[in-house]
Every structure is written in structure tokens, then in C-alpha cells.
Amino acid sequence: MAFISEGVRSGARLLTGAGRPEHLQRGYFLKPTIFSDVPEDSAIWTNEIFGPVLCVRTFRTEHDAIRLANATQFGLAAAVMSNDLARCRRVAHAFRAGIVWINCSQPTFSQAPWGGYKKSGIGRELGRWGLDNYLEVKQVTSFDSSDPWGWYLKK
Fold it and tell me: How high does pLDDT run on average in the chain?
């Protein structure tokens, strides 16, 4: 609710939502909320809001879209929707996000890594990358000689 209030204060245009569903006055429920014309410096544009809140901005060029998407300290997930698959791949590679979907949204596979860039998430979950988080790495060095190692001896 604080993010929604901040969005209104920042001058973003509230299109729908922004309150509790009338039939659910108890618990943590919120109507799906959509803002448009969101200022780039608004907290609802620059933060990850884990709730049913969507911020929409228009762009003129592919470069502008990539700049807008990457101009955040977070980078958990992104999606590219287009009939131009070469453009989709180009934009997907330019996005600074841990997972990018092309012409779909939200499929996650347990064999593939899951985690964000920048301040989104810590490390990776799922697949062999997730297993690495549970392992401890150790280095063991052995000098197999009767000669002194020598780095600590004066000559």
C-alpha cells in the first residue's frame, strides 16, 4: 500500500486497482494495480514490488527500452514479447536480469539456474548451480619432497 501511495504522489497515472477487494477485508489481499506514465525516479519504478502492481512506460526505440529496463539496482527477471525473434534474442542478451523469458512468462525449470543480477537474490538456486550453494570448497596442497620448501628460510 505504501508503494501504491508513493506511485500516486510521484505523478504516475493509476489505471486500476489500488485497494483491497471488497469481499476480502481481512488478510493480505490487494486488487491487481496498474500504473502508467511512471516517472523514472519514482520508487514504484526503481524498486522490486512483490505484489500485484505493474508499472508501464512507453518507449520509442529498442535502445530506449533496454536502457529503461536496466536502469535499476535490481534484475531478477524480464520478458521480451515480439514476433521478431532476432530482436527478442538481442534484447534478452542486453537485459541485466537473471532470467529472461521470450514470448512467454514465468516458466521455471528445476534443471536451470534461478537467481537475479545486481541486488536481486543472492547466488543461484536450482540445477547444479543451486547444489553448489550447499557445498564447501577446500584446497589441499601437498609438497612431496625431502627438500625443505624454502620460502620461509633465509639464504
Answer: 87
